[in-house]
Amino acid sequence: MQSASSKSWSFDETELAHLRRCVALAAEAIDAGDEPFGSVLVSADGTALAEDRNRDNTGADQTLHPEFQLARWAAAHLTLAERAAATVFTSGEHCPMCSAAHAWVGLGRIVYVASSTQLVTWLSELGLGPAPVNPLPIQQIAPGIRVEGPIPQLTEEIHALHLLYRSKL
Ligand SMILES: [Zn+2]
Q1: What CATH code is carried by the domain that includes residue 55?
Q2: Of 18, 79, 121, 133, whose CA is between 20 and 30 Å from 157?
Q3: What distance in angstroms lies between residue 104's CA and the mean position of ligand 1's atoms?
Q4: How many whole angstroms from 101 Cα to the centroid of ligand 1?
């Protein structure tokens, strides 16, 4: 039987390209010395409007998550209708802080490559303890958001980036 977490989603090439860009941004974050997370904010017609990567180390601020930055960008630049019709593609499932910011500014769908549950498993396999914030699923923070993920065909790339980042510490 297939569980919800192993459900395979289908995306067109444009959406897969946005997801691959998230993976590339996560790799860029490692090159800069930050944790491997990247996100892209996409309009209803499929146009990438803004992107960011994690900057927690280089920005000396552990709240500099790309999903949080994109929520703020959306609040500053998009109408409420544009936000609701937009999609945030992201390498890793939103943390509770970012889920809340996403919902507070009225953004729409989220597509993530790797789930928070997967990240916790990978980090625990490296002997790394729990984060200071519980890894609650997006739906527990923002029940009105349409959420899709994980994306099996890209998940292992994100796993590899987390292993690479930890190997550099
Ligand atoms: Zn976050």
Answers
A1: 3.40.140.10
A2: 133
A3: 14
A4: 9
